[in-house]
Amino acid sequence: MTAPHTRHAILQALARVPDPEIPVVSITDMGMVRGVTVSDAGRVTVTFTPTFSGCPALHVIRESIEQAVRDLGVTDVEVRSTLTPPWTTDWIGDDARERLRQYGIAPPAPTGEGQLIQLDAEPARCPRCGSLNVRMTASFGPTLCKRMYVCDACREPFEGFKSV
Amino acid sequence: MTATQALTGAQTQALLLKLTVLADDEIILAHRCGEWTGHAPILEEDIALANIAQDELGHAGMYLTLAQSLGGSDPDHVAFWRGPDDYRNTRLVELPKGDWAFTMVRQFLYDTSEALWLEAATSSTYAPLAEIAAKAVREEKFHVQHTALWVERLALGTPESERRTQAALTELWPHAAQLFQPIQGEAELTAAGILPDLNAAHARWTDLVTRHLTQKCGLTLPDAPDTQPGRDTHTPHLAPLLEEMQSVAREHPDAEVW
């Protein structure tokens, strides 16, 4: 290692690491990367936060982060996880929301501090035709982060991101 | 990093036990949820219970990782290498999965207790626990929404679904109080602000579930027993559950890649 890598270069590399379950967005798009530090000695520390605590892809994400930094030629890498502040879908960037929508996943509605027992689901808009005339058909989807909907305007079923 | 801020030795031991107790309930209930995989009444519920089980295991993982940092064993070891005598889960979660009404009523009673406890635990003076609670409560919210709706749907559905839901409640209600049984040393941890006040959580829970079950769902609450045996007393259902759950780990103790 000659020159230590800049934070910027590392963040750029992490921005190319896809979310293992939704490959159209990266781990930085999702707001999972919470901090990157480079010590004078060239040691790189990346802090990330899990989206869901039981997400089966967590170890894949951890390894991908480490590999992406190593690919820059860094030998001393530490990947830490943090729970504070807890991950929220409000951290998903606008650009990533649009990519989710094009991929067929309704982006999450803004999170609100509502009551715990709230039987009405948050609003979702059909990612294909834009209608709000949609029905939730299952509150748990193929991954922990998604719910299933049907659009009553264009009749297409679609997935929607939960607001967390 | 907000590390272990000056827990006394006694506090550390009590917190270790509490984290194990919390994790044990999550692990055992997750296994019961998982038993519906491929058997739920509709495909969506198959997936829902698999999701819920995954979340509960995620919470157990966080508790046990914290316990490990306080001197506990490796989380996998805790889950897969203890027998029924060492598990400290409630009897509520170990009872066989029963019919769909039984599963939904149990899940509702458990989810609401977990959600309310977690909400209170976000104010813990012990930062690592407050962090876990803040994370888990966001996930638990979805379980509560889902199972509250199912209990309502079943209770107000057909005479048969109502009969089954009432039967489930009658059987499960006496067991639910055990969720609020303090562990040894809990009072001291509560006094130090490390753990939430269990009595307050119990009162909030009773109010919430009573309103939902009686007023909204028209069900009748049976009497609950005044006293409960401790968490070290199990039904005969736990041993076969663990035998199944731990069979792979015990058959391949050195496996590193699954």
Automatic annotation (TrEMBL), chain A:
- Listed InterPro entries: Fe-S_Maturation_MIP18 (IPR052339), FSCA_dom_sf (IPR034904), MIP18-like (IPR002744), PaaD-like (IPR011883), Zn_ribbon_PaaD (IPR056572)
Instruction: List the protein's name.
Output: Phenylacetate-CoA oxygenase subunit PaaJ
Q: Where is the MIP18 family-like domain?
A: 8-79
| Xref: Pfam families | FeS_assembly_P (PF01883), Zn_ribbon_PaaD (PF23451)
Which segments constitute the PaaD zinc beta ribbon domain?
Answer: 120-162
UniProtKB/TrEMBL annotation, chain B:
**Would you tell me the Gene Ontology cellular component terms?**
cytosol
**Classification via InterPro entries:** Aromatic_CoA_ox/epox, Ferritin-like, Ferritin-like_SF, PaaA_PaaC, PaaC
Q: Which Pfam families match?
A: PaaA_PaaC (PF05138)
The transmembrane segments are: none
Q: Which SUPFAM superfamilies match?
A: Ferritin-like
Source organism superkingdom: Bacteria
GO BP of this protein:
phenylacetate catabolic process
| Database matches in Gene3D superfamilies | 1.20.1260.10
Q: What is this protein called?
A: Phenylacetate-CoA oxygenase subunit PaaI
Native source organism of the sequence: Deinococcus aquiradiocola
Tell me the lineage of the source organism.
Bacteria, Thermotogati, Deinococcota, Deinococci, Deinococcales
